[in-house]
Write a structure and sequence with these properties.
Chain lengths: 235, 112
């Protein structure tokens, strides 16, 4: 490839790199968008070439057709925002039982199924867990295929709810860890050490992951808002 | 054509294009331009997010292939999408008949 051809080819690469940098959201979804746009740009270039433009002109025309990368990225922002929210909520719902089972094994009173109130006393975070589960399922339902029948949750609202649910899960894990410490200090129960260690490890791990995920969700929301405002100002 | 006129009908138009067969995003845009004889010349960037939204709703689905060394995402209509398209056609038929009936009414000239 000649140096001129290589320079021209890099126009598309530069465009795609700028697009990738401007897109918010989960990495897999961003990569998918970039790949799809890359294919579209190639098709647009081919069509412009077929109309008689030189290779360079065809690439320029394709890039002009797709618009500035920042502007294109804003167009994808809503869908990537929903993807972020859905991914975060799905992770919370999936890890809930994985962590919850350890707390149940450690703190649930004997024959707890016969006395649910005893379970609630032993694991006071249960009502908050219930709220998180119901709210999370509602957001997933109103941002997915059930939107054919249910009112759709807007991207901004889905992200805000994902942040709130993540924060609630942080509160759940912190509450349970505090309950554990309080009971250890006051009751001095004879918990199996391995079970207690596994429970604490599970909760601390999820706590760290949820704090990180909440921070990413907040940053995603801030970046999307800033970009939209900048573009609106320059429009 | 002013974009805001198209806004409420974009989903139906995309479903109708995909009814003809599976296509990748840029081909959907080209098909829309060609079928409308240039009337619907949408900004290229609006097509892809609209297709993603339709896929999230389950009205279309997509798959990835490798074409000439590039990853290509191709969309196709789902059975739910076909049903939704039929419903859109019925709604549009009723709407356009009503609009034509009203717009087609000649205004009376006030000569005095």
């Amino acid at each position: 490839m000649t140096s001129q051809a290589a320079a021209h080819e890099s126009e598309l690469d530069t465009y795609l790199a700028e697009l990738a940098a401007a897109l918010p959201g989960p990495r897999r979804r961003r990569n998918a968008v970039v790949n799809e746009v890359a294919d579209g740009l190639s098709e647009a270039t081919r069509q412009h070439s077929a109309q008689g433009l030189t290779a360079h002109q065809a690439r320029q025309a394709a890039i002009a057709e797709f618009g500035p990368p920042e502007q294109l990225a804003v167009g994808f922002a809503d869908e990537l925002t929903v993807a972020s929210a859905r991914q975060a909520i799905a992770a919370l719902l999936a890890t809930g039982p994985v962590v919850g089972i350890w707390w149940l094994l450690l703190l649930a009173p004997a024959a707890w199924w016969q006395q649910p109130y005893g379970l609630w006393t032993a694991i006071p975070a249960i009502p908050l867990v219930g709220v998180v589960v119901l709210s999370g399922l509602t957001v997933l339902a109103t941002t997915g295929q059930l939107t054919r029948w249910l009112p759709e949750t807007t991207p901004t609202r889905a992200l805000a709810l994902a942040v709130r649910l993540s924060t609630a899960c942080i509160a759940v894990d912190l509450t349970m860890l505090l309950v554990l410490v309080a009971r250890a200090l006051t009751d001095q129960p004879a918990w199996p050490p391995l079970l207690a260690a596994a429970t604490v490890t599970a909760s601390l791990t999820r706590l760290a992951c949820t704090i990180h995920a909440t921070h990413r969700l907040r940053r995603h929301g801030e970046r999307s808002t800033i970009r939209k405002r900048l573009l609106a100002r320059h429009a | 054509m002013r974009p805001e006129i198209l806004k409420g009908h974009l989903d139906a138009l995309l479903l109708a294009v995909l009814e003809e067969g599976e296509q990748h995003g840029y081909a959907v845009l080209e098909a829309l331009r060609a079928t409308s004889r240039g009337t619907f010349d949408l900004p290229t960037g609006t097509i892809y997010p609209a297709l993603h939204r339709l896929e999230r709703s389950g009205l279309i689905d997509s798959s990835w292939d490798t074409v000439n060394g590039r990853r290509r995402r191709t969309y196709r209509l789902t059975p739910a999408g076909a049903k939704a398209l039929d419903a859109e056609r019925t709604t549009w038929s009723q709407f356009s008949t009503a609009v034509t009936a009203v717009l087609g009414t000649p205004t009376l000239a006030t000569g005095t």
